[in-house]
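Appendix B, Record 12. Input sequence as logged:
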Amino acid sequence: MLNQPKTQFDEADVASSPGGQSWQIDQNPTFRLFWLSILVAIPLVTVAGRLVYLQCFIADSFTTISEHTITTYEPIFSPNGRILTSDRRVLAEDVEQFHLQMHYRWLEEPSNRSWLLKQVLSRLSLKERRDASRVEAEKRRFLWERKDSWKELAELFGMTDEDFQRQRQRVQARVERILANVEQRRADRRIAASNPKVSQSNGESSAIGRAWKTIVAALTTPPDRTFNDPVVVKEELEYHTIVTDVPLEAVVNAVSRPNLFPLVRYIESTRRTYPSGSIAPHVVGTRVRMSDLELAHRGERFPNGDPLGYVRGDDVGKTGVERSYDRYIRGIQGQRRIVKNGQGEIIRTEIVRSPAKGRDVTLTVNFELQSLAESLLDTVVDLAPNEATSKENAQPERTGGTIVVLDVHNGEVLAAASAPRFDLNLFVNSDREEWDRANSDPRRPFFPRVTAMTIPPGSVFKTLTAVAMLQSGLDPQHEIHCRGYLDSPDQYRCYTYQHWGIGHGDMPLGDAICRSCNVYFFSTARSLFRKSRRNGEPERISHWARKFGFGQRTGIDLPGERNGNLPKPDPSHKRQTVMLSETMGLAIGQARLTVTPLQIVRMMAAVANGGFLVTPHVVRDIEPANHLEESVPRVAMENSYRSHQRINTHNRRRIEGLHPRVLKQVREGLRKVVAHPKGTGYKRVRLDQVTIAGKTGTAEVGGGRKDHAWFAGYVPADAPKYAFVVVLEHAGLGGREAGPVAKQLVESMLSIGIVRRKADSLKAPLAN
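Logged structural output:
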């Protein structure tokens, strides 16, 4: 047909086309399809790469800035190091604690309507959400499951339903008080906003200016929250502690069933415990939580950052080894980053900084000897104030005591006992009644007597006086006659004359030490004083006392050590009689002289070891650092390590100018104190199993109170290994009161094998 449609692709038309060639639609389609695929793939790959980058690399930045999430940081507690005795008994350690926390919405009763509806709808499909009866049924089921979860938790932690309910109600009541306060403040602002004060503006009062201000405010100022919006405080979106110190078994049981216990979490903390309680409390020391004020002071002191990395929630040592070695013992907190949604539910957690465990510190203290020494003091010191204490201005007798045992060669402290003492757990589980009783005790159980008690030494100081006299050229065989007093019967007398009206007769230096003759030391001190004045030399007793470390700290690695007081005669004093009187009083350990027990025991160690002044120390070893300590500033740790090394490597120095013959003479006198029948320590200190050298001392205090009783010495006398001192406050005569305690102390050292009996010991020569 002539009128049927024709196209250019008809065969007839192709045949009649120019050139007579047939026209091909697609001669090479593969080439064009390849480039078309490339053009489509490029934008798809770009979009996919961008999605991967957003999701995997910078998702946290979007989470942080989103108004629907909350990012917080919480500490990861790390245990502090332990404190151990030399025989590996634990004196202080941290124990892990777990605490149950519940989200506020999960414990709130009745539940928040919006939150409850959201939880229910999340369980239903879109179709079920349109069924009102289905939604209500799901609400009842949800609330029933929550109550069942509460009951399971209560049983798991050994609590009754009523106790668990009271814990929840306690938290809810606190949050509701906060919410009520916030709502009250908002109500006050609403009242204030309803009566605004019209202020007159002097500038831009024209309509154009006001219009411009309105436009700028609309574009730059966020809209204010209306007073009809519900108030939500942050406490409603947080987790709160319900049960503390949860057993680990219960935690494991609960964590293994997360579906049964939703919106429940467990946090870990540590608590310092002292398993041995009242053993060596002044040496071990205490740890407490660092206060905000202390943290602020450190911030002011170190504006560029705390060199030791203290942060809120850290414990800090306050006394004893806990304080001296705090930088080693302290565990370094880690930090955890927590991201929550707008409802306070945790979305993501990650560890920002790993915690570092504290390092163990091993003491030189022998646990068994320390326990025995403290038991000895407990038996002789009043354990409770006596009846006289209740009277006005009355003081208890035997208010305290101290025993120290020191290695004469390296300064290690084997025992440092004080009485009365206290239980270190008072600072952990404080019993108010027990705390008040200890704090109000007039005998001061918290007072560290070993390092801080400064009292007159009495006749134990004659050991030093004898050294000074011999160093000044005194002939030890020169005899001085004692008639009981020096010049007048009413002053400068011996104890024998005061009580029995007799003197000691003629005696050399060794016998004067043995029988503790005051007249001998008065007479010799007076001669030395006059000789020094004639020759323009310094007073000899004070001079040698300084060389032996009196009037200065011993350097023990415990805080709070005191210097004591070493009086120094003033050459410019116009009244020579005053200076002479003080020198003579100093010769027998009286006058204005005060010492610490550590200074006396170190003096005895120097006499015993051949003239070396040791530095007492209570720490023997510190656990090596590990790689986790990289979180601690390197400079601070190196400085502390050097300080510790200084204590342990430079712990002895030779006393300059001290002659070996002098020490030999003094040691012979100290041996006779215990071994000679007329010695002041013969009856109450001597032992057949081992030889003891030492000196009794009775320090007068006046005021109608009993004297302080001293005994200081070393053992074995023939080959000294350990020096010791016993001090009993207001106990009376040194030989009568402190002597028996010293004897029992040495017996304890024998029983536990620290000191060998005569038959078992090797006869070693005295150190030069």
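The chain is about 40% helix and 15% strand.
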